[in-house]
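User: Show me sequence and structure for the first protein, then do the same for the second.

Assistant: Starting with the first protein.
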Amino acid sequence: MSAPVQVDERPGVATSLRITEIFHSIQGEADAVGWPTVFVRLTGCPLRCTWCDTTYSFQGGDKRALDEVVREVGAYQTRHVCVTGGEPLAQRACLPLLTALCDAGHEVSLETSGALDVAAVDPRVRKVVDLKCPGSGEVARNRFENLVHLTPRDQIKFVIADRADYEWAREQCATRGLGAICQVLFSPVADTLAPATLVDWILADRLPVRFQLQLHKILWGNVAGK
């Protein structure tokens, strides 16, 4: 088994990445939900969320040249591209990849845990920052300094496992003024919190947040490459 991919903070411009998979599907969440999308899943993650559904991306993967990845994405002739993981920003070459995809004319989104610095992400990229609730086991990894680097084009996501997570997320929205920064998304942990229960809480509190389910799981279940 390959060693876990570690965060690499050495200076210099990286020109290769370790890729778990590249596939064409429907975007299942965030504000691009429903759009045909090419997903580029980078290998490795420094976090270990209790409910993670992509643990297969923690290790292994294939080393690919950056320009090769951009060419493969382009072959799908699809406007929307999502760079995800794991934690994509754990690889140095993620930043130049994002820029190269934007330069190629794609509408690019980045799904990131928010535990790593997003300041250097190309401003053309839509950042979907997943703030970790206590139930994830990784709440201490939240980098709230990232909030100043978000714009109205970005999104903040909370994945909620129980009432305690919901109340914590509600408190973050109120005390940090998240709704004034960008769109806020609340999602239930699949097979843990009933979606209707989360909706009831949101409506009862009149929260100005957007409820979402993972469309790809409704269509195909928890299947890799979908």
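Switching to the second protein now.
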Amino acid sequence: MDSILQFDEWLFSLFNGTWRADFLDMIAPMWRHKYFWVPFYLFIVAIIGVNFRSRLLPFLLFAALTVTIADTVSSRIIKPTVQRDRPCRAAHLDTPAIVLVSCGGGYSFTSSHATNHFAIASFFIVTIGSVFSYSKILFLLWAGSISYGQVYVGVHYPLDVFVGALIGSLIGVGLGYLFNARWRIAAENFDPIA
């Protein structure tokens, strides 16, 4: 286990220290902020509401349930159990973390940002990915870039976001399949606002 943590800290030093760029220093704090993405979420809701209006309410309920479960698993179950300090508080690192945002409260493992964003990205892929197939890779890149941002700004280790991404993906896929069992969004369900 020690060798895994040492490797994780070494990777953190690369992502947070060695591989820095001025433009990332400017955009990473904003990119990983939850309010930055409100227009994106509204756009998804509008797409579903305009094209599949009979499925909008269950879609919203399942999306909210996906994030709620993901956040609960990460923040209220795993973090208090593991109790790993954030890198922005770790005095033992060979190179201190470069911290671009508030260090935040709570523990580091797992990253709730990664868990939540991969959960909702996976939910989107399973539910609307069949209609908007080009969006699948975009959802993964979106969740991945936000997760990477957590390491870049100094508040999480790579292992925190990797495990968070795995857990979030499982939750998102599971709830996506549950949603599809009753309210599948597909071309044959197209019911645009007249």
